[in-house]
Amino acid sequence: MTAEALSPELETIVANATAAAPAFAATSPKTRAQALVAVADALENAKASLVEIAMRETGLTEARLNGEVTRTAVQLRLFADTLVDGSYLDARIDYADPEFALGVRPDIRRTHIPVGPVINFSASNFPFAFSVMGGDSAAILAAGCPLIVKAHSGHPDLSDATAEVASAALTAAGMPAGTFQLIHGREAGVAVLKDPRVKAGAFTGSIGVGRLLADIAASRPAPIPFYGELGSVNPVFITADAIAERAADIASGYLVSVSGSAGQLCTKPGFAFIPTDSELPAAIQAAAGELPEHRLLDPRIARSFEERRQAIVSAPGVRPVIEGGIRFDEAGHGWATPTIVAVSLEDFRASKEALVEEAFGPLSILVETPAGTDLAALIPEFYEGNLTGTLHLSTIEGTGETANAAELRTLVDAISQQVGRVLFNGWSTGVAVTPAQQHGGPWPATTNDTSTSVGSSAIKRFLRPVAYQNAPAAFLPETLRDANPLGVPQAIAPAGESKTWGSAAQG
Fold first, then answer.
1. I need a surface site. Which of 333, 341, 430, 474 has the fewest CB within 10 A?
2. What is the CA radius of gyration of the chain?
3. What's the pLDDT score for residue 2?
């Protein structure tokens, strides 16, 4: 694949990002941290006007969008503190050692540097937290990489307004021209992704589009890393004892998780495995009451959900627990009420092709499993990879001392092989923005299951390691100098250490 000539507008944008890369990479971590905080403050100051635009373009509620602006600001501030801390650089210093176990060892020092300009494709379902200035954008800027954002077509006005706020804040904070730029249109995004001056890509969206973009990134003459979050059905396993102990609580929590934001969340529980003949379906019906309808994000998503819903409810053996439905208004927008269906494990297996694919919207499937079913064996049978897996246990089962403890441990181990986050007695929707968070998983949940798009480790996607051997101090990055002017954590291997290697294992 050869790079195509860019339009004059895109050429200017990519050239600006390329020119900004050295200067932006050279900014100190604290300077970049202050810029991120400035963007966070600016977004919160503009919250009212931004949320008004977002409500019009997405149909999401004011409360949800207000919370999302706050989350976006928190993400920026988390990365600011991550920069000041400095441990993300993983600075390592091996001092020269003439008595090294394998011969003379040179002075070797390793750290991480920005990869260069990055393009980020915005998400539709999080118009703030995974869009123009969302988590991926925050991580890219924190890493010191010039950012080109491809706006999502579902909220173009909001994208422009957010970009204006962020750009003004970055400029006022002294960041180089070309540090942050916005483009519109899928073709423009693809063209920029193909350009050899762009060094990485990020995306949150559908499996089909994500695979297309990932393949483009991989098939370039010089392939680049591409971090996509694509699809997940987030299986839930609920034990009989858990249902007997708190059926009503589980039912209400499940409904909230499935119906929140009209089910348009990558962490929505798409399947719940429950014992055959349990009381949970009845508890769900009792908890449902009058569920309000919710507008889906755009007509395309609504039509796709209608097709998936119809395929699921018409599959053999599927029966409604909560019928739900979708209607379309004169503008083509779809308004949905939650659909919960149940199916036996036997019928689920028979209709796997119709049922197993993600339904992006307020729909979930209860799979009724007979007593004695090996639940751990179901995971590789039905799922490739997911963002989350959840296990609901009774209070006694949670102690790990019940008769089925070994079976549950096996199930937890099996879940952990297929997901990035394992939850107990909770619900997968609502991803805490915190340093230890893992938001990623095996394909097709993400294109790279060793990374995360939430949490402070997300910055590592846009850095690459470099080692310096026998470098004079004047030419070392400040993070690797003995004086350590930035005060970052340094892992130091002193001379003579190699002669004691292996002793720790004997202690």
1. 474
2. 25
3. 57
